[in-house]
C-alpha cells in the first residue's frame, strides 16, 4: 500500500492533536507514515504508533529546528523520493498552520505537484476516478464547500485542525532514522532566539475542540471574565470578535475571523456576537455552532445549530451554574 507522509510538529517530543487527526485521515487513503523533526523526535513514537503510524521517519538533525523551514522541506523531498521508489507515495499531509502551509507550498513546487491549502476533509477518490485523493475546502469566506484534487504529481495537502476526531489504531511501526543532505541555502538563515509565549492554561485557539467567543454585546471588557470562566469549565479556548479586539477588550491573538484566526472546533459558542461576515469566515466550518444574543435578527442565528435569544448576562451565569451542578 502506498504511504501517506504525515508531517508531525513535535519539537518538544510530544505528538500534538492535529498530527493525530492527520494520521486518522491518512488511513483513508493509504498507509500512514509519520515524519518527525528534531532531537526529541523519538519521544513521540509511542503516541504516533497508537494512532496508526505504520512507518515513522525520525529526522533528529538539530538543523531542523535551528533554521527556517527549508531544511524540513529538503528532508521531506528526500524522504518522498525514497518512498516513491519503494512502496509508492499517495500524498503528503500537513497541519494548516503558518509553517505547515509554507512547507507544503515549497514541497509541492519541488515535487512538481500541486498544493491544496486549508482543507477540512480528505478522502480517497471515487473508484475509476482520475484522482486517488480528494480534499474538501471551505472557500469564499466559508460560504461554499468545494471538492479539490491535484491533477499532476503527488498531492500535498494542508488540513485545518479539528477536521476530524482522532481515533486510535495501534500498530507496530517500522522506525527509520533519516539523515538528510542539506544544501548551503537551507542553512543560510538561522533562528537565533526563541521566546516561549506564556501559557494561559487553555488550549491553543486554532487547535481547540471547543471555543467560547465573546463580542461587543458583552458591553464591558470586564465581562470577558465570565467568558473565561465558562471556557475553563468546558476545557475550551477563548475567542473574540473583531469589534471586541478593536475596542481593546481582548488581545488580537484571540480574534476569530477573516482578519484573525480561522477555527473549526467540534463546538463553537458565540456570545454577544452579531455574526458579521468577517467573523463568520473564521468559524463557519465549526461542527456545531451555538449562540447567545438578545437580537433575534442577528445574522449569527443563520448559522447556528442551537440559539438562545436572551440577555447574555443572565443566560451565561445560568449556563455556568448548570454545568457546575451537573458535574456535581
Topology (elements, then pairings):
Blueprint: E1 3-8, H1 17-26, E2 31-37, H2 45-50, E3 55-59, H3 63-66, H4 70-85, E4 89-95, H5 98-110, E5 115-124, E6 133-139, E7 144-148, E8 156-159, E9 174-177, E10 210-214, H6 224-234, E11 237-240, H7 242-246, E12 267-271, H8 277-283, E13 288-293, E14 306-309, H9 312-327
Parallel strand pairs: 1-2, 1-4, 2-3, 3-9, 4-8, 5-8, 10-11, 10-12, 12-13, 13-14
Antiparallel strand pairs: 5-6, 6-7
Could you tell me the mean pLDDT? 93
Unreliably modeled segments = none
**Which secondary-structure class do the elements indicate?**
alpha/beta
Per the CATH scheme, the topology name of the largest domain is: Rossmann fold
Strand order in space, largest sheet: 7-6-5-8-4-1-2-3-9
Radius of gyration: 21 Å
Strand content is 15-25%
The tally of domains stands at 2
Description:
The chain has 328 residues and is of the alpha/beta class. It folds into 2 domains: 185 residues, HUPs (Rossmann fold), CATH 3.40.50; 118 residues, Rossmann fold. Helices cover 27% and strands 24% of the residues. The protein is built from 9 helices and 14 strands. Strand 2, helix 2 and strand 3 form a beta-alpha-beta unit. Helix 4 packs across helix 5 and helix 6 runs parallel beside helix 9. The longest helix is centred in the N-terminal third of the chain and has 16 residues. The radius of gyration is 21 Å and the shape is globular.
